[in-house]
Amino acid sequence: MSDATPSSSDSAASAGPEESPDFDSMTRDIAEVPAVEVIVTVAVNLMSAAAVKLGLTEDGAEHQDLDEARKLVHALAGLMDASTTEISSFHAAPLRDGLKSLQLAFREASLVPDQPGQGPGEKYTGPVYG
Questions:
Q1: I need a surface site. Which of 1, 52, 95, 106 has the fewest CB within 10 A?
Q2: What is the distance between the alpha carbons of residues 74 and 123, in angstroms, rounded to a whole number?
Q3: pLDDT < 50 positions in the chain
Q4: 90-95, long-range: CB < 8 A, 24+ apart
């Protein structure tokens, strides 16, 4: 059927230079997503990006950038701190574990490790020990 309306993911993915994505459809899709799901998705994306910048992927050192990793881990800690009362422990517990793992990985990767309480995100989480 040529007059069928594509789904929002199809229209966004297939939008060429002359086409614009269907923002109305995308807005409707976002409106249906619970806030907790948006918060968790953003947190997982921050975790993934931080892991890459810490060199924890297959390519390791090729993408390692501790300055960028510090920013990402700090942002993740801030998001977790700000959303503590908004998301259940079911969602928060694995995110906190992941954050702590990233903070420890940052400390290990640093040539001159930060003092306890001074590492990325520790302003929000408190000192992280291995």
A1: 1
A2: 8
A3: 1-13
A4: 91/36, 91/39, 91/40, 95/40, 95/43, 95/44, 95/47
